Amino acid sequence: MRTSFLWLSSLLFITFGVSGCVTSPPPYEEYSLARVAMKAAADADASRFATGLYNRAEENFRNGQKSYQDNDFDRAKKQFQMAIQFAEKAENATRLKKFQSGDTFP
Fold first, then answer.
1. What contacts 93, CB < 8 A, 6 or more positions away?
2. How far is CA 82 from CA 6, 60, 66, 99, in A?
3. Model's pTM, two decimal places?
4. Is residue 4 part of a domain?
5. CA-based, 20 to 30 A from 90: which of 28, 34, 99, 101?
6. In this structure, how many other beta carbons lie within 10 angstroms of the beta carbon of residue 58?
7. 14 lies in a domain?
8. pLDDT, tens digit only, all 106 positions of the chain
9. Residues 57, 82: Cα–Cα separation, whole Å
10. Is 3 domain-assigned?
11. Which residue range(s) make up the domain with 68?
12. Are 97 and 85 in contact (CB under 8 A)?
């Protein structure tokens, strides 16, 4: 009786101990999309034409990378999503300003 109790309590301890280590999966897709969005914004010269939006995108991307390295995948995913949004806004604002100035055709 005593050995079955010890065996059961050990099994429960291991089960709860292992289940506490479960985290969300790494945000591979968001990381990749954020990187591509940042490159597209940089290629459009957003750092010159939409400085504020581009800087916020860079900041969110860097914070996402740090959270990713720290295995805080939920926070990293949110940061990468925000980086994508700001990078796309910066790219669009840059293209609009260039078009309005007659610099390029959209």
1. 46, 49, 50, 53
2. 50, 6, 14, 26
3. 0.77
4. no
5. 28
6. 19
7. no
8. 566 666 666 655 666 555 555 678 999 999 999 999 999 999 999 999 999 999 999 999 999 999 999 999 999 999 999 999 999 999 999 999 999 988 776 5
9. 7
10. no
11. 24-100
12. no
